[in-house]
Amino acid sequence: MNLKQLSDHLGLSQTTVSRALNGYPEVSESTRERVQLEADRVGYRPNARARGLATGRAQAIGHVLPVSAQHEMVNPVFGDFIAGAGETYLKSNYDLQLSLVPDGEEEAAYRRLATTGTVDGIIVHGPRMDDPRIGLLHELGLPFVVHGRASNEALPYSWLDVDNYRAFHRATQFLAELGHRKIALINGLEFMDFAHRRRQGYLSALEAAGITPRDDLMSSAEMTEVNGHHAMRDMLNRPDPPTAVLTSSLILAIGARRALDEAGLQLARDVSIITHDDDLSYLRNGQDEAIFTATRSSVRDAGRIVAEMVLERIDVPDAPPRTVMMEAELIIGRSTGPCPTP
Amino acid sequence: MNLKQLSDHLGLSQTTVSRALNGYPEVSESTRERVQLEADRVGYRPNARARGLATGRAQAIGHVLPVSAQHEMVNPVFGDFIAGAGETYLKSNYDLQLSLVPDGEEEAAYRRLATTGTVDGIIVHGPRMDDPRIGLLHELGLPFVVHGRASNEALPYSWLDVDNYRAFHRATQFLAELGHRKIALINGLEFMDFAHRRRQGYLSALEAAGITPRDDLMSSAEMTEVNGHHAMRDMLNRPDPPTAVLTSSLILAIGARRALDEAGLQLARDVSIITHDDDLSYLRNGQDEAIFTATRSSVRDAGRIVAEMVLERIDVPDAPPRTVMMEAELIIGRSTGPCPTP
DNA sequence: GTGAAAGCGCTAACAT
DNA sequence: ATGTTAGCGCTTTCAC
């Protein structure tokens, strides 16, 4: 059933029906009601492409993920984030288009998005420290918001980020205050902006605590279970192993834990690891020196906010960029077991 | 730059340019070349909405995820799956639309997808045992493929699934053969089809081994870290704790491990847990009784295949349904440590 | 081999 | 308050 059929059926013009359905004021209440009722009855839905062609809007937002290095997608965080964004889109009647862009084809992909007009705005995921995408998007004139930041980008742009620097600074500081001097960092790829910032936070806290950073206690690799395992195992096998560890993701932590298991070490008393869940009660039993970053619901909030931000930018294309910094939660359960002699 | 401008520029009609660009045979080689070259030079891209309106095709596939119970999205597996699907779409020039559908609004959402015409086909995620969506999609006449199955659905339909029954049967059997009699199952929500099948596999293996299933060794809940922790902790606190455990996802396993850590138990010698990674070398060191289900690359393959399946169904709408069963990998490293006396 | 013209289903400017 | 008409940018008959 299309608009023509519906309007013929009602004995009205397409225009009137369209106006009635889209809430234009010049339609009489009685006809609007009649139209709405009939539309509901027959289950009429305007064709999105036709409407888009007429209005020049796609009513869709593109989420663009770099995909060869899987650091982003695999991250459980992505699921929560996208769920939050989806909520916003649902409310605003936008569709969510997911673009998986292989490394190296980025520029082409963005240009394509801009010119084919399948989306009205874009969310940039997984920004690197040096990220050419932001300049490109500026040039293309497509409204966009970045989830994260690109440290070396001078142009102003809208972003939402977690304060990675501060989170890792505080986490490291906490471990240092517990007496640890050999604190390891198992990080993601450090050309990724978030990972870089985390490292900076870690380093600055070490420095503040008068601890000299050791290369053999820092690892940087794609965030997979295997890499977490390798990194942890290698560190434990070297002369002067760490007494505490920070990992940069749940997935790395899983691998790291396995290595600890194999070495006969127990998390509760020997290391600290970052986790990610909403209900923290199970961390508060005093057994863990657990460090916590982003709760699932906060990630979801982030998704929701970012989505709202693009929609705003679409409405007001030349509004000044907005930036949102989210604070990571840092929840700590003190160890009841003996703290390993640092 | 649109078609009209481009053709004016070339001194040709829109028709000819369109034909040249779309590979129609009646265009002379020389003009085709000239057109193509110029199109590339100015970066011409046809407007997707206009083309869609003219052809009646959206060139997009919808992936529909139920979203109130997060079992699907949060699963790291989803990332790999969607990456695989994305690969296929990229090759075939399709877009990927993600629909996050809140529980309860499913029917409306599917009807909307079918009538607004934003997608040409659909991938159904997270099927439940009784899933009304399949009947609905049949009725709507929209090509679709299910990732997973709906056990209680009588109608034929295309699906791709992992053999969950077999995987858990074999895993349980293996543990039983090691001498375990108290094998726990920490499962997802069992109205979800995959979880139900896993439980059936577990139960059948117990029966075959002459082990009476115990309710207190079976848990079923949303797949979150907290739930994994609770389930494991509760089991360990009860009179007759398990000597081996099967968990239904990485996330549950993380929580379960934490509970084990807290109880001073070590994975390597006390339990077995399902994991998920591509590089299994680190499991083969003889320390783990690890049970492994889906490698990341196999999940990616699954995504790729499912995407191909919808595209096929779009091309040949009344082809008989195709079904693909994937075998879960089962990789086991024998424990070198003492096997706990069951 | 190329072009003119109709039309995909809708919205919006312009009547009335 | 309702209708007429002209597009949106493309593909696709149909004519030449």
Produce the secondary structure layout.
2 copies of one chain form a homodimer.
Chain A: H1 3-10, H2 14-21, H3 29-42, H4 48-55, E1 60-66, H5 76-92, E2 95-101, H6 106-116, E3 121-124, H7 132-140, E4 144-147, E5 159-162, H8 164-177, E6 183-187, H9 193-208, E7 218-220, H10 225-237, E8 244-247, H11 250-262, H12 267-270, E9 274-275, E10 291-292, H13 296-315, E11 323-326
Parallel strand pairs in A: 1-2, 1-3, 3-4, 4-5, 5-11, 6-7, 6-8, 9-10
Chain A binds a DNA duplex (16 and 16 nucleotides) through helix 2 and helix 4.
Protein name (chains A, B): LacI family transcriptional regulator
Domain HTH lacI-type (chains A, B): 1-55
GO molecular function (chains A, B): DNA-binding transcription factor activity; transcription cis-regulatory region binding
